[in-house]
Amino acid sequence: MSSRGTVAVVRVEDLHKRYQADGPEAVAGIDFEVREGEIFGLLGPNGAGKTTTIGTITTRVRPTSGRVLVDGVDVGEDPVSAKLRIASVPQLSNLDRALTALENLTFHASYFGAPRRERRERARELLGRFGLGGRENDHVNNYSGGMAQRLMIARALMHQPRLLILDEPTTGLDPQSRLFLWDTMVDLRERGTTLILTTHDMIEADRLCDRIAIIDGGKIIALDTPTRLRRLLPAEHGVEVTVAANADPSPAFTAVSGTERTEARPAGDGRWRVRLYGEDDGRNGGLPEQALSAAQSGGLELIELKRLEGSLEDVFVHLTGRELRGADGARVSGRWS
Amino acid sequence: MSAVGVTGSPRVAQATRNIQIRAFAALCGRDLWVTVRHELGSFLAQALLQPIFLLFVFGRVLPEIGAARPGYGTQLLPGVMALTLVLTALQNTALPLVIEFSFTKEIEDRLLAPLPVAAVALQKILIAALRGVLAGLLILPLAALILPGGIHIHGPDWAVLIPIFFFGSLAAGAMGLVLGTAVPPNRISVAFAVVLTPLIFTGCTFYPWISLHQLRWFQVFTLINPLTYVSEGLRAALTNLPHLAGGWIALGLTVALVVFGTLGTRLFIRRAVD
Ligand SMILES: Nc1ncnc2c1ncn2[C@@H]1O[C@H](COP(=O)(O)OP(=O)(O)OP(=O)(O)O)[C@@H](O)[C@H]1O
Ligand SMILES: [Mg+2]
Questions:
Q1: CB within 8 Å of chain B, chain A residues 24-43
Q2: Which among A5-19, A109-123, A264-278 has the top mean pLDDT?
Q3: Atom of ligand 1 at shortest range from CA of A24
Q4: What CATH number labels A8-85+161-230?
Q5: Which ligand is nearest to the CA of B270?
């Protein structure tokens, strides 16, 4: 039941989901395990099946086949036990519009059996922490998108869930709220809460997730730690030099040793960006040092010099392709004709 | 920490049951709170405006201008009460469901509460029925104010009145559950017109069922309408007019409750779980 000595809080086994009997498969055979106390990321293009997968864990979607276990309990057989352990922040707002912000939190806690005093105190504390202090008696209709998002996260924390599932939680948040949410998630993990997170923000995924599953077309195409995922990228290491130049300055860099491939693009404003790909073997002071002296001896004014590391975004695009996704998840051309 | 393999033990089963009962009560608490704190005015207006005008026009204006017998109002009273009870319970299930299931998705938070999805449907019916009962009862003081000479009722026969209110409002709530879950949100206004108009006019509200014997086909037709059994039941409880036999009333309400309750719960689950 557990792997590598760790407890699986969620186990998804050969999950398939078809919304219409004759329609395409939104999820086409997914297997994964979320371990206790980790932040597990689900990444994938629009329509990849992330929300559907999450729905099967929260009991909102019935799998066509396969099963989901939460704490070893089959969600399909005992949905109540699963719901007791889970809190979920959905992709789209589902706040209770008949209620005020404060009431949204207190009633949610009451569904989970929290005593009256405790839920009021906790609600006020969370509203304060999420910067909604003075607005607790507003109807949620009057909340802005970001405020509603923060309120939904606060609501999910009301019943102190064992497993917190967040579907694109930082979409629509301002930078402060986003940073705050990141801290909150790390904090929760430290206190033993297990988190599942979907996002389109690669920096967020890279920074927060212990492990990431990349989903495309209803299937997992990669599952690993962010570091190991980045290594999937073939030869994306090197340096990037931005210089002031009116014409392609790449001839100036031909002498840099260890370069396997050079790419130059105009960066506007009379600047060019040159990428020198290759493993840095440290000879002649290493790639950055060499690039610097090459620019100087070529008489080019240096604007910026940075080391290139394959980013998670590069990995993502590498694995899932550059095309936009159509309504059915199929790739469509993104060009204007 | 982990709860693997403990689902079978009786202590755990008891604890789970308690959790579910508490969640059910909390969902009811939410609805009652909303009724009292946020929607009292709109609830009363929606429930009572129509019966107030019915009582006024049919019970006061028509008799006064000679278009109806004096005392028609008293005869009308059980019908108006039944209509209010049924419409209020029906609308208070159907309308919120349509909204909460559609663009606002706000029902989701309650579907994720620790109780079976069907219990959420049941809870909706229960609260709507309660609102129906409340509206039905308020007809009495309103009628006393509006009808010339107040109300003249025989009884009331509580042993009939209470079960009719109870089962009638639940059956109407179940009808609302079917309507609210079967109809897509963009069709709801048309569905309401198509369903409610025949419901109102074939439910023996404005005429006793017995008096329809000259119009036999219509008399038989009215038996399809669950409102008929509520109207006739209240006629039995509040007047000494002839009415449909008690056994038929009980049967009609039971069938309505079972059929609409089962169908509505099925539809609700289908909407709640993709
Ligand atoms: N309720 C539904 N009924 C029918 N089809 C659905 C439903 N929900 C999702 N789908 C389809 O299932 C596929 C997967 O959708 P899903 O919402 O899981 O994608 P996602 O990975 O969450 O995408 P996004 O990044 O846009 O949120 C899509 O093709 C979508 O059209
Ligand atoms: Mg999604």
A1: none
A2: A109-123
A3: 29
A4: 3.40.50.300
A5: 1
User: Ligand 1 atom closest to Cα of A45?
Assistant: 25
Q: Which among A329, A334, A330 has a CA at the least distance from the CA of A49?
A: A329
The Cα–Cα gap between A181 and A130 comes to 9
CA distances from B49 to A157, A194, B81, B194 (A): 43, 52, 13, 21
Distance CA B220, CA A156 (A): 54
What lies within 8 Å, CB to CB, of A62 at 6+ separation is: A56, A76, B273, B274
Do the strands A86-89 and A163-167 form a parallel or antiparallel pair, or are they unpaired? Answer: parallel
Q: Where along chain A do the CATH 3.40.50.300 domains lie?
A: 8-85+161-230
Whole-model pTM: value is 0.82
Pocket of ligand 1 (CB under 6 A): A 19, 26, 44, 46-52, 91, 328-329; B 274
Tell whether omega for the bond before B156 is within 30 degrees of 0, i.e. cis: yes
Surface of B (143-182) touching A: CB under 8 A: none
In a domain, B259, yes or no: yes
Q: Which two tokens stand for residue B270?
A: 């289908």
Q: What three-state secondary structure class fits A244?
A: strand
Window 213-272 of B, Cβ < 8 Å to A = 272
CATH code, residues A237-309: 3.30.70.260
Question: What pLDDT score was predicted for residue A206?
Answer: 87
Q: CA A287, CA A260: separation in Å to the nearest integer? A: 12
- For the residues A221-248, what does the mean pLDDT come to? 81
Predicted-complex ipTM score? 0.85
Q: Taking CB atoms and an 8 Å limit, are A99 and B105 in contact across chains?
A: no
Alpha-carbon distance of A201 to A186, in angstroms, equals 16
Q: What are phi and psi of A73, to 5 degrees?
A: -100, 130
Whether B273 has its CB under 8 Å from any CB of chain A: the answer is yes
Structural domain range at position B150: 42-273
How far, in Å, CA of B242 to CA of B238, rounded?
11
What is the chain B residue with the closest CA to A112? Answer: B23
Contact B15, B3 (CB under 8 A): no
Cα–Cα distance, B149 to B143 (Å, whole number): 10
End-to-end CA separation in angstroms for chain B: 31
For residue B147, being part of any structural domain is answered with yes
Nearest to B112 among A7, A88, A92 (CB): A88
Which of the listed residues A12, A17, A19 should we mutate to test ligand 1's pocket, taking the one with most ligand atoms within 8 A of CB?
Answer: A19
What rounded mean pLDDT belongs to chain B?
88
